[in-house]
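From: lab user (bench 3)
To: helpdesk
Subject: output format question, protein + aspartic acid

Hello, I'm new to running complex predictions and I'm not sure whether the block I got back is the full result or only part of it. Here's what I submitted:
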Amino acid sequence: MARPKILIIYTGGTIGMIENPETKSLQPFDFTHLIDNVPKIKMLNYDIDNIQFNPPLDSSNMNPGHWVDIAKSIQDNYADYDGFVVLHGTDTMAYTASALSFMLENLHKPVIITGSQLPIGEVRTDGEENLITALQIAAATDKEGHPMVQEVAILFEDYLWRGNRSTKMSADHFNAFKSNNYPYLAKIGLGIHFHDEALWRPKAHRPLKLQTEMDTNVMFIHLFPGITEQTLRHQLNTPGIKGIVLKTYGAGNAPTEKWFIDLIHETAERGVVVVNVSQCVNGGVQDKRYMTGNVLANAGVISGHDLTSEAAITKLMYLFGMGLSTEQVKKYISISICGEITVL
Ligand code: ASP
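Helpdesk reply: Thanks, we reran it on our side. This is the complete output you should expect:
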């Protein structure tokens, strides 16, 4: 049997950071340092190559251009590798995972994103285990020899999650990620236990296609009690804005005051796509449940159901990036493209 061939794409993040001796703050270091700290990788007996971002990034500096760089590295090497491991900072990992899931159309090989809370050189690091498990998942196949994972996923500590369903939940715990509205794809214990029914299976086996245009004329508006008409008007009239993720209360509720609804209605009438996503990390929008949600729907706001904020904003970037019209974007928001939303 051929040895699994895995490509590691090292973008940066805590996993590869070291302490600056003068400032004592963590800063990215290069990949050789990372691999030197995990001699156990050799015991896997895989063929592993790596690509490194130069310079490696703290993921707070990631932008759609970097997502394109990652996606292109995967596309350029797609035929030559069984799987891909992307090492990434945790801070914006869920955004990258969501974006890549849309950009890598017809993906049927594993793209496993991981990182760590403690740098790999530290005694108590979680990075070593995360990296090794990510490599094993990227190499895992079923009885017929097909990849177990055929989607973008986040591996962190005890779980493998669907990338476009994940959210960073903790700045402290090793189990830092969770997909609050979708079951885990695998549970990591003595073995790697895949949750077969939860894994994404592409319907047709089409060639990988890359969508590199991501339209950044999108924004979040996070509601809070006391938001003023002036603030909201200013936000809704941001020049060039095409899509807004409106972060509402509970099951998708918002104030019903006339000034508020009129402003939202005017915005939707102008052709801006306003998507309703709950501020709660668990559950989703049920905009017919309360009058306060129903009023929003009547004002032209589209329900984002159980989309994460990260998936909602990157999905808007992707759909507008494809040059779709307002009506088409509205239609595709509530349709599952790659398992990011529960279709009711
Ligand atoms: N600030 C770091 C980053 O996101 C945090 C981490 O890697 O966990 O790059």
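A quick orientation on your result: Residues 12-14, 58-60, 89-91, 115, 117 surround aspartic acid (CB under 6 Å). Let us know if anything else is unclear.
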